[in-house]
Amino acid sequence: MGATRALLLAASQNRFLRERASRYAFVKKSVSRFMPGETLDDAIAAARKLKEQNIGTVLTHLGENISDHQEAEKVTSHYLQVLEKLHSENLETEISVKLTQLGLDLSPQLCEQQVRRLLDAENPGRTLWIDMEASGYVDATLDIYKNLLAKHPNTGICLQAYLHRTAADVDALLPMKPSIRLVKGAYAEPANVAMQSKNVIDVSYFALAQKLLRAQIGGDVRRAAFATHDAALIGRITDFAAAENIAKNQVEVQMLYGIQRAEQVRLANGGWRSGVLVAYGDYWYPWFMRRLAERPANLWFLVRNLAGN
Ligand SMILES: Cc1cc2nc3c(=O)[nH]c(=O)nc-3n(C[C@H](O)[C@H](O)[C@H](O)COP(=O)(O)OP(=O)(O)OC[C@H]3O[C@@H](n4cnc5c(N)ncnc54)[C@H](O)[C@@H]3O)c2cc1C
């Protein structure tokens, strides 16, 4: 891992920095590149605009590692309102939740119950996605995911291609017909847990993508979504799909709001399924730091906005 990336990921966990950074206008301005705003209405307005371009959306309310039951309850209530609003406005927008924001650190049972309440309220035709967090949470997240799938086949899980274990996790999930959003992985992980070099991670990602696409066609995967901004990798995946005669609308690429916008539109116009994850909320600091770590050149926006203030 590069030194800058490691430093930014370490800073993402720092409470002192979080409390200070959130107050500075130049930081907020830089964050706005990746977020349409802090409120649900901002996120919904962005979803409407993206829909006009034939780009699907997934909303996520920023937050993680909550430390009391009331907070978990508050997050669940918020998402219930979100689902009600999305349904009443007839948006096909889905949601993606972080289990540590729904009480995983407090009690896996409580957390599972909260997700069940959301699934009971979600339209069964839409996927409710579960984010994957740092490696220490993977077992607990997968356990909850498997429990949920039995009653709610429309639950989706994020898997990280950088983890050595992920190929085996995919194999274990296939008999349950999962929905999988494949990412490279955003956290600082040691070498015994995760691959460290981009080339090796890309090889792992492409191998998993091929497997998921074939499994989707064979009926063992309900939905596969490739969440990456890596244009070269997306090109390899779409080429593979074309070579296997997989219909374009069976191949879904998801990106983060504000990143590779032209590529999002190009895919949608080309007939591929293009989606964007729109984050909102005021707890954006760790999330924003992970975006900087993914591309340290993004630090340049911070510097420019600081200079402009
Ligand atoms: C929809 C979605 C959901 C995600 N959910 C999770 C999750 O649940 N758990 C998890 O661990 N990770 C998640 N991630 C993050 C993911 O793991 C990666 O950290 C992130 O997508 C960067 O990797 P990449 O695949 O884009 O490839 P990279 O190799 O990192 O980047 C490829 C190229 O994409 C562009 N790019 C990538 N990131 C940025 C950026 N931040 N700003 C500007 N340009 C950029 C650059 O041009 C870069 O050269 C999610 C990502 C997406 C798109």
Overview of this protein structure:
There is one protein chain. The chain is α/β, with parallel strands linked by helices and 309 residues long. It contains 13 helices and eight strands. It has helices at residues 3-12, 15-21, 25-31, 40-52, 69-88, 108-121, 138-151, 166-173, 198-218, 231-243, 261-269, 285-294, 299-307; strands spanning 56-61, 94-97, 128-130, 155-160, 179-183, 223-227, 252-256, 273-280. It has an eight-stranded parallel barrel, surrounded by seven helices. The longest helix is centred in the last third of the chain and has 21 residues, at 198-218. The structure holds flavin-adenine dinucleotide. Flavin-adenine dinucleotide binds next to strand 4, strand 7 and helix 12.
Sheet bearing the most strands, described?
8 strands, parallel, barrel
Please, what is the average pLDDT? 93
**What's the helix count?**
13
Compute the number of strand runs: 8
The main sheet orders its strands as 1-2-3-4-5-6-7-8
Please indicate the percent range of residues in DSSP E strands (runs of 2 or more): 5-15%
The H-and-E topology, N to C, reads as HHHHEHEHEHEHEHEHEHEHH
Overall helicity: 40-55%
Compute the separation of the termini in Å: 32 Å
What integer value in Å does the Rg equal? 19 Å
| Cofactors, ions, other ligands | flavin-adenine dinucleotide
Overall 3D geometry? globular
Q: What's the helix and strand layout?
A:
Layout (H helix, E strand, L loop, with lengths): L2 H10 L2 H7 L3 H7 L8 H13 L3 E6 L7 H20 L5 E4 L10 H14 L6 E3 L7 H14 L3 E6 L5 H8 L5 E5 L14 H21 L4 E5 L3 H13 L8 E5 L4 H9 L3 E8 L4 H10 L4 H9 L2
Parallel strand pairs: 1-2, 1-8, 2-3, 3-4, 4-5, 5-6, 6-7, 7-8
